[in-house]
Amino acid sequence: MANPSTLHANTFVDALIGAGLKRVCLTPGSRHTPLVLAFTRHRDEIDLYSHLDERSAAFFALGLTLATDEPAAIVCTSGSAAANFFPAIVEAHQSRVPLIVLTADRSHELRGSGANQTIDQIKLYGDCADWFYDAPLPEKDAPAITLRNLRTLAARVYATALSKRGVVHINFPYRKPFEPGADDAEAMKIDRRAPIRFVGESGTGSSGLRTLLSEDVLRRKGIIYFGHGSCRSELERGRMLPWAAKLSRLSGFPILAEYTSNMRAAPAIGAYESFMTAAAMDFSQVEVLIRFGAPPLSKPMQDFLAGNQLCYHIFCSRAGEWADDSHSVTQHLTINPAKLDVCEWDGFAPAAQATKSWSERVSRADCVARQVIAQEIESGVFFDGAVLHDVVDLMPAGSALFAGSSLPVRHLDQFGLSNGKPVITYANRGASGIDGNVSTALGAGAARPDSPLVAVLGDITLYHDMNGLLAIKRCGVPLTIVLLNNEGGGIFHRLPIREFEPDFSDYFFTAHGLDFARAAALYGLRYIRADDRASFRKAFSESVGGAESTLIEVRTDAGADLKRRNEIMAAVHQKLKRMNS
Hints:
six-stranded parallel beta sheet
């Protein structure tokens, strides 16, 4: 029977050595057996040093690093053994010497239980470790993403130690048995492939991305994807749009842009959520992804990343941050996209006809989706997605839009189809919480006093930060609030829990019965109720950019809204199917 700890340790260690690790100091014990045996598999290609005590081993590794200027690793069992690494870790931290610390630990049920040889190893070295990570427990039949996580973790460990010139501590909990199963060795081949290539930013911000766009990359079907935070101001957008458009034209890779990326302008594709899963499109053939900004908001895009084995996934990180929840990045490039220039692509050969055809096909699908969405909104029942469609349509050029967490930002992404007017968009997508959305929107508006400000918020989100409304008058920030009131947590209608009544209605949907007209009166806001399209468009057009702050409430039904969204997506898919038949 195979031991999951063996696969777990071997996967991590193989990738760590693939990333560049050459020297390891091992100490005695039992719980770290999976790690020790994983390293000994590579005894012919790396240097292994056996020590009798952890303190000496750690200082020995420090000497290895000082002499080679490459991170060395130290490995120990659980308990006080890990504490004996501490003096050398302090020295490494103070001297800015890269050191990789791998400690075995008790499984979670034994922590804090009084079990023998068990201490608290979580962030054991405090600020002396530049990065700490408590690895997941090995599990039988682990999903593919778990193993991808271990490989990308290993690559990050080595790259972080090297780039930060500091200590990286990874804590590995293991359950008995620690030794390999009878058929482990035969079934598990060594994988020496480097899981990720890390590329630093050049002095000018150019050439790094161009270097990665090899002939092999450019002959495949690809996508350029701008996620939230890719572009953060009008000035950046003016710099980024020209080079992005030229790269798309030369590579044949269409641009897909989230609304809050602030890059949804021609030639970017905006309606992709409504057609990505259409059988007529077959995005599974895509082999290259060049990605900027935060991980995708769109569920179809998330599923695409989780389900596709990309040949190249190039993530362009603005500040060296890690944003790869699918653990599929193959090249991690630290580069500020606002520093790239259109001349970056001078000399590139135009894309092959097959690649151009792919880009044209995606563009046609975008046009079809836009037409169907516009027709359905014009002729169908008014719903919350239609509200976001109309907000984008009616906002004056130069406005600022804040998209509330949960459903509003998702509806904006799917139905906010840019009409070419420059609008700058904000959203709290770091942690994606519903707290503080009103105040964040007002803060952004205060920094842009000459621009109309609109915030589209859900009812629970507004309730969560109603005290933030005081700043409208106190700080002098005119605001139009579009309130989507579906009487609770409407986003949970997208989850399977909706089938479990009465628990769903009582504990997830959380109906509240609040009268927001009274909240508007309390804070001195004009209040308008607009439950149909004509009244909403009239109220919004009169309010946006005006001196009087207004709360426009649209009452919706979460279940009906989800049904309407699905109907529109089905209509898009059907139209594409007819076109391709």
